[in-house]
Design brief:
Elements: H1 2-15, H2 18-36, H3 42-48, H4 50-53, H5 58-83, H6 92-103, H7 107-141, H8 145-161, H9 167-181
Helix pairs in contact: 2-5, 3-5, 5-6, 5-7, 6-7, 8-9
């Protein structure tokens, strides 16, 4: 526990260095701008900016990518709240509560609540992951090849059986997807 806290403090020191903070703020700004655009999510933005990531140092690159992800998540909420236009699927639910608040003249409050909720949830999630990561690594390393194969088959079968209509069609489409995934290997 003490070691995790020391590493957390060291991580804050690294993240708050001026150049690292600059790249993080750049990522959040780009993420906000891209998050407002319908159809442009964090993954497409990150993949477009990968050439920049290969040029800069690893720590600022990771901070920039994290900033893009979190900024894009908030940017998507802006369009959902103000325009009733979700930029990507997770923000469809935001339209249900956010847009009626905007129509009542409380759009700024809805954006502020969204920002604080996103910040709180992300902060708690990161801190929980910091402390649970060693346990998850130990559990993941205990799996052998047979266990991993069984988990993959369970996932494929679960996806195949959730298809609408005939379960046989779902299994056939899963097998077709596996076949397409083996091209080039």
């Amino acid at each position: 526990m003490h070691d995790s806290l020391m590493q957390l403090m060291y991580g804050f020191g690294v993240a708050l260095a001026p150049t690292n903070l600059m790249w993080s703020v750049f990522g959040v700004l780009v993420g906000n701008l891209i998050g407002v655009l319908p159809g442009m999510g964090p993954l497409s933005t990150i993949s477009m900016l990968l050439p920049i990531v290969s040029v800069i140092a690893p720590v600022p690159a990771i901070l920039m990518l994290a900033g893009i992800f979190y900024g894009s998540q908030y940017g998507g909420a802006i369009g959902a709240i103000l325009l009733n236009l979700p930029s990507h699927p997770p923000h469809a639910v935001t339209c249900l509560d956010g847009y009626p608040l905007t129509r009542q003249g409380r759009g700024g409050a809805a954006l502020g609540i969204t920002m604080m909720a996103s910040f709180f949830a992300a902060s708690v999630g990161i801190v929980v992951m910091i402390f649970l990561s060693p346990l998850l690594v130990r559990a993941a390393n205990s799996f052998g090849p047979a266990d991993i194969c069984a988990i993959m088959l369970l996932g494929l079968l679960a996806g195949a059986t959730m298809a609408r209509g005939s379960p046989l069609k779902g299994v056939a489409m899963t097998l077709f997807g596996l076949l397409c995934g083996t091209v080039g290997t």
